[in-house]
Amino acid sequence: MSKKAELIYDGKSYQIPVVEGTENEKALDISRLRAESGLITLDKGFKNTGSTESAITFLNGEEGILRYRGYAIEDLAEKSSFLEVAFLLIYGELPTIEELKDFQERIVHHTLVHEDVKSILDGFPSNAHPMGVLSSLVSSLTAFYPKSLDPNRSKEEVDGTIIRILAKLPTLAAWSYKNRMRQPVVYPNNNLDYCSNFLRMMFGLPTEEFDVNPVVSKALDKLLILHADHEQNCSASTVRIVGSSHASLYASVSAGIAALWGPLHGGANQAVIEMLEAIRKDGGDVSKYVAKAKDKSDPFRLMGFGHRVYKNFDPRATIIKKAADEVLTELGVNDPVLDIAKKLEDIALKDDYFIARGLYPNVDFYSGIIYRALGIPTDMFTVMFALGRLPGWVAQWKEMRENNEPIGRPRQIYTGYSQRVFSDISER
Ligand code: CMC
Hints:
Helix content: 40-55%
CATH topology of the largest domain: Citrate Synthase, domain 1
Number of strands: 6
Strand order of the largest sheet: 1-2-3
Distance between the termini: 63 Å
Bound molecules: carboxymethyl coenzyme *A
Shape: globular
CATH superfamily of the largest domain: Citrate Synthase, domain 1
């Protein structure tokens, strides 16, 4: 007999079924609550609301656990490649050698984007933020692949759309940077691996040879793995909710990119470096900024600190911190901003305000430092996050569609006026 919770309201008792996940997470299934009792639940920011059941990513914020399809993030970051992880997230199992080869070949086949995309790109001013450009270009893919507009087409067609978006996002991302630099775009070189191809399209020029530094390419691959999925975060929830109206995968991912852009989500990696730079320019007094972050009358927050679900440590931050040290040593980078970051981390980790609220450096505190060491410009950091998060968005969208989930449509508690009498403008 499945477990039930009892709610007593207005003298009546209601039985609420309890749903249990494979890791013993428990939820009250309130889907019948309003019909039976007239009550809805209220939970701003969905801090304690499960929006779905999902078999993709398991995350335990208290114990700092993150697993994709049951595999520990530590093992995946150490032993696999980004495309292997993408396959795992999207199709549910680690690929065999043959499956991975086939997946890579299919992706390579679709890296080129339609030549007309260049004219859309040319329409953006050079100071356009690359995240806005990327979101628009991804949405524009619906125009070049109109069949993708119907996500209810055959499994093969939907899979074709999945492969296309994985193949084209690095090209579009690199081109959004080229637009900013007012440089000619570089076409994909399909003899290169996923990350090396992206780096060449981003930093190379069409007329010159470009040698990708394998240290940079390997570090980028690891960063993408660490960002590949994070269950029902702001952008993944956006992708699912947009897709729940049967909007296309391109439209849903475009919305996900917009959600990721904000500084409280993926935009934090850019905000971290801007904050560290600002502290440095202001004389490097880290304690002053820690005090500002603690002052409730000051809107300033320490960017890269705190997380909605991790309240002890962010396992991705542990891996990335080590990777950052290795990359900086291998590339011989000596960055003054890094010293500020270390000081900030030391002070904040010992401070009661941060300890009491479970505020620790998150993945974005360190990812910005590595991106900077890899030569990635600051306003491209969140684009890098988007490249990494793509397989997660795709997997979340696909799962939502395959489970035939209903359209997402929360309720609200109305707090406005009750009905009022309309008065003619001449009488007001
Ligand atoms: N600096 C100073 N105080 C903070 C910070 C911070 N970075 N983050 C949270 N707090 C305080 C907040 O003021 C509140 O204090 P009190 O209880 O006294 O009112 C308490 O900690 C809880 O904060 P919250 O805003 O209720 O927590 P949340 O779960 O809604 O927000 C967060 C999580 C990530 C949006 C927030 O910690 C934050 O704004 N961090 C900075 C931005 C950032 O680094 N974001 C990247 C997240 S990791 C990448 C990703 O997965 O997107």
